[in-house]
Amino acid sequence: MSKQPVTVIGLGPMGSAMAGAFLDNDHPVTVWNRTAGKADHLVARGAVRADTVQAALAANELVVLSLTDYAAMYDVLGPAATALSGRVLVNLSSDTPDQARAGARWAARHGATHLTGGVLVPPPWIGKPGASTFYSGPRQAFETYRETLMVLTGTDYRGDDPGLAALYYQLNMDMFWTSMLSWLHALALARANGITAKELLPYATSALDLRYFLEFYTDRIDAGEHPGDVDRLAMGVASVEHVAHTTRDSGIDSALPDAVLEIFRRGQDAGRGGDSFTSLIDILAARR
Ligand SMILES: NC(=O)c1ccc[n+]([C@@H]2O[C@H](COP(=O)([O-])OP(=O)(O)OC[C@H]3O[C@@H](n4cnc5c(N)ncnc54)[C@H](OP(=O)(O)O)[C@@H]3O)[C@@H](O)[C@H]2O)c1
C-alpha cells in the first residue's frame, strides 16, 4: 500500500528531523520553510520543495507544523488561510493550552481540522524507539493519521480538548527545565571547586533519578497528607541553607538556591515546619 503523503511546514532542527523520518519511511514529503535553504538537504533526499505556503497546503491533506510557537503559525498560514479548507493540521509547535485551543478554533473557522501535539524528545530521537508525543483534538482525525504519526514517535492521545496535549507537554517542560537548571547549577558549583561535569556525571544521573521519591509521595500528595514522619520541612530549610551557603562560599551566583530557599521559608512561616517538604504544594498551588 502506498504511504500517506505529508506536508511539513517549519524546518528547524525538529521539523527537519521529522521530514527526514517521513522520507526514511517512504512517505512522499512536501516541505516549506521561511528560510528556503533549510530544505536543501531534504530536497536532495527526495522531498518536494513548495515555492509558496499555498502550494505546500494544496499538496497534501496532512500538514505537520513544526514552528517555534503559535504566533509563527499565524504568520505563516494567515496569508494563505484560503488554502486551509479540508486540511488536517498536526501542530507540533510548543505553546500554552489556551493558545492551542484558540489555534484549533482558528483552524476550524478556515475549514481545517487541528490536532495539537507535544513532542517529548529532542530531534535525534525522532523515528527512534522510546520516543513519545502527546496528542489531543478530534479523536477521529487522530485515529486516521495515527499510523503515519507513529513514524515520528510513539503516540499518547490525551483527549478531545485541544489544550490537553499542550498542557501535558508544558507539565513535562516545567519539570524538565527546572531539573536541568538544577543540574547546571550543581555543575557551576562543582566547577568552582575544580570538579568537572564528567567527574560529576555518575552522581548527577543518580541524584536526578527521583523515581523512588515520586512514587513514595504521590499517594500522600493526592490525599492531601504531608506527615513529617520521614522528612520535616524544617530539616529541608536547613538543608537548602547549606546549599546556598556552599554556593556563596564558592564565590558563584546563588540566585537559584536563594529562590528555592525563599519558597521553603514561606512554608515554614506558614507553620508547616513539622510537616513534610511536600506541604510546599499548598504554597505553590495558592492563587496569586
Ligand atoms: N528542538 C528540540 O529539542 C525540541 C524538543 C521538543 C519540542 N520542540 C518544539 O518543536 C518546535 C520546533 O522546534 P525547533 O527546535 O525546530 O524550533 P526552532 O529552531 O525555533 O525552529 C522553528 C521553525 O519555526 C520557523 N519560524 C519561527 N518563527 C517564524 C515566523 N514568525 N514565521 C515563519 N517561520 C517561523 C523557523 O523558520 P526559519 O528557519 O526561517 O527561522 C523554523 O522553521 C518548537 O515549538 C519546540 O518547542 C523542540
CATH topology of the largest domain: Rossmann fold
Query: Quick one: CATH superfamily of the largest domain?
Result: NAD(P)-binding Rossmann-like Domain
Q: Major sheet, described briefly? A: 8 strands, mixed
Query: Which ions, cofactors or small ligands are bound in this entry?
Result: NADP nicotinamide-adenine-dinucleotide phosphate
For the biggest β-sheet, the strand order reads: 3-2-1-4-5-6-7-8
Mean pLDDT: 97
| Number of domain modules | 2
- The residue ranges in which pLDDT falls below 50 over 5 or more consecutive positions are none
How far the N terminus sits from the C terminus, by CA atoms, comes to 56 Å
Order of helical and strand elements: EHEHEHEHEHEEHEHHHHHH
Q: Can you count the helices?
A: 12
What is the 3D shape? elongated
> Per CATH, which architecture of the largest domain?
3-Layer(aba) Sandwich
Task: Decide which structural class fits the backbone.
Answer: alpha/beta
Radius of gyration equals 23 Å
Helicity, as a percent range: 40-55%
Note the beta-strand portion.
Answer: 5-15%
Q: Tell me the name of the CATH class of the largest domain.
A: Alpha Beta
**Beta strands, count:** 8
Folded structure, characterized:
The chain is of the alpha/beta class and 288 residues long. The chain has 2 domains: 6-160, Rossmann fold (3-Layer(aba) Sandwich), CATH 3.40.50; 168-285, N-(1-d-carboxylethyl)-l-norvaline Dehydrogenase, domain 2, CATH 1.10.1040. It is built from 12 helices and 8 strands. The protein has helices at residues 13-24, 40-43, 53-59, 70-77, 97-109, 139-149, 162-192, 197-207, 211-222, 233-249, 255-272, 280-284, and strands at 6-9, 29-32, 48-49, 62-65, 88-91, 113-119, 132-136, 154-157. An 8-stranded mixed beta sheet has the order 3-2-1-4-5-6-7-8, sandwiched between helices. Strand 2, helix 2 and strand 3 (48-49) form a beta-alpha-beta unit. Helix 5 packs antiparallel against helix 7 and helix 10 runs antiparallel to helix 11. It is elongated, with a radius of gyration of 23 Å. 33% of the residues are buried. The structure holds NADP nicotinamide-adenine-dinucleotide phosphate. The site of NADP nicotinamide-adenine-dinucleotide phosphate (NAP) has 23 residues, from helix 1 and helix 4.
